[in-house]
Write a structure and sequence with these properties.
The chain has 432 residues and is of the alpha+beta class. It contains 14 helices and 23 strands.
Length: 432
């Protein structure tokens, strides 16, 4: 086993933390299979018997709505000989889970309901009163504003303690609905990145890369915006979504990033999403009516681009988007990119967020593709013998610590990556 303490220092980390199978397995055990991990939104399983298949670390699980309407998270494993009970990504199991191999059946809380010819077990250890005959539940399940999490470990902080300041991501998303709630759009973009999960988490707070990596898209969108203005036309907001990527370095350096305990963090807003078209005016009036003007304006003016829940979630709350990582191997990561609808708003407001969702994530966009290309090349570079260390020196020594919050007044600082590795070291057993 590696001596993990030799692999990371405050200003750089050893490449093996991105490439080594043994380190990856330890991460799965000590981080993903120990802490709170996002499963899904409660609107993904609205009816009793609805399930959604989820992976936490290396464990296949199902998020399942019970007859009592409670959401549980169970291991997707039959207690008889181990066959997975649900074979699809999602569906409805009816009133019970029935194994496809020998028809053992289970209630929606996982408890065993019936075993064919049960007399065959008389006098053995495997009688229905043995808890081993029931489907195993995860240690803890909890939800925050409709977002469901599970922890495979029984010990450790509560969900609220774990989320800490990063709760603002969920609050910001839900508070933008006049009803205070969102519902899932039940299809997601599923993308496999051929790189370590950390590339994604670092990139989300990397304000130095957009004007380089996304230059071709940003410059092209800015050109269209200019041409439309020259012809006295107002460019739709979705061109601005893309042209903002090509902002100058100086602008990106002024967009603050913030690091929280547990490796969480946020990137402040840079797009200015308060247009004044008729649809927006109607929406703002709805918000004022729901919350009162002062509170509603506070919600609408929150200056957030996205919030990161380390080590797997990016919540882009102003546009109701959420990206969740499921690491599969040191060099392979699944990301699920979800989209939510604000309850109680007009279709036009939903369409505006949908434009962004597809413009940055769909198979047709260059935004996500350009990021993925960088990370694939990054993984190949780190797998080579061309150097052992990955640099996080940018603005090192200039970080400000206020209580347990870390930030830098330079938005392009690598302070947030350093904050992520501080949490990584703690999870991996290096102490604080
Ligand atoms: S493996 Fe499930 S009933 Fe036999
Ligand atoms: Fe990017």
């Amino acid at each position: 086993m590696h001596d993990i303490s030799k692999l990371i220092e405050p200003d750089h980390v050893h490449r093996s933390v991105y490439t080594d199978q043994e380190i990856f397995d330890t991460e799965m055990q000590r981080i993903f299979e120990s802490t709170w991990v996002y499963c899904g939104h409660e609107s993904q399983v609205p009816n009793p018997g609805d399930y959604y298949s989820v992976r936490i670390g290396r464990q296949p699980l199902i998020m399942l709505r019970g007859a009592d309407r409670k959401i549980r998270v169970l291991y997707n494993r039959c207690p008889h000989r181990g066959v997975q009970l649900c074979g699809s990504q999602s569906g409805n199991v009816g009133s019970s889970l029935v194994c496809s191999y020998h028809a053992w059946s289970f209630r929606l809380d996982g408890s065993v309901k019936s075993i064919p010819l049960p007399a065959g077990y008389a006098g053995t250890r495997m009688t229905p009163d043995n808890p081993d005959c029931s489907v195993k539940s995860v240690a803890r399940v909890d939800a925050y504003r409709g977002f469901v999490f599970a922890s495979l470990g029984a010990a450790g902080p509560t969900l609220l303690e774990f989320l800490g300041e990063a709760r603002i991501g969920f609050d910001d998303m839900c508070d933008r609905s006049p009803l205070g709630e969102v519902e899932i759009v039940p299809v997601c973009h599923r993308v496999i990145q051929h790189s370590n999960w950390k590339f994604f988490m670092e990139n989300q707070l990397d304000a130095l890369h957009p004007s380089v990596t996304h230059q071709s898209t940003g410059v092209a969108a800015a050109r269209v915006e200019r041409a439309m203005r020259e012809h006295d036309r107002t460019p739709p907001l979705y061109y601005h979504y893309l042209s903002a990527f090509a902002s100058p370095f100086e602008k990106w350096d002024s967009v603050q990033t913030v690091g929280f305990p547990h490796g969480h963090g946020l990137l402040r807003g840079y797009m200015g999403l308060r247009p004044d078209d008729a649809d927006t005016k109607e929406y703002v009036a709805q918000m004022h009516a729901a919350y009162g003007e002062e509170k509603a304006e506070g919600f609408l003016d929150r200056n957030i681009h996205h919030v990161l829940v380390y080590p797997y979630l990016s919540i882009q709350s102003p546009l109701q988007q959420l990206r969740c990582l499921r690491p599969l191997a040191p060099n392979k990561t699944l990301s699920e990119i979800w989209h939510f609808r604000l309850k109680g708003v007009s279709p036009a407001i939903y369409q505006r967020a949908l434009w962004y969702f597809n413009l940055v994530n769909s198979p047709a966009t260059l935004i996500n593709a350009d990021d993925l290309e960088n990370w694939t090349r990054g993984q190949r570079g780190l797998e080579s013998n061309g150097g052992d260390w990955v640099s996080f020196h940018r603005n090192f020594g200039g970080d400000t610590q206020e209580g347990d919050v870390t930030y830098s007044n330079n938005g392009t600082s690598e302070a947030v990556m350093r904050n992520q590795f501080k949490a990584w070291a703690q999870y991996m057993g290096m102490g604080s």
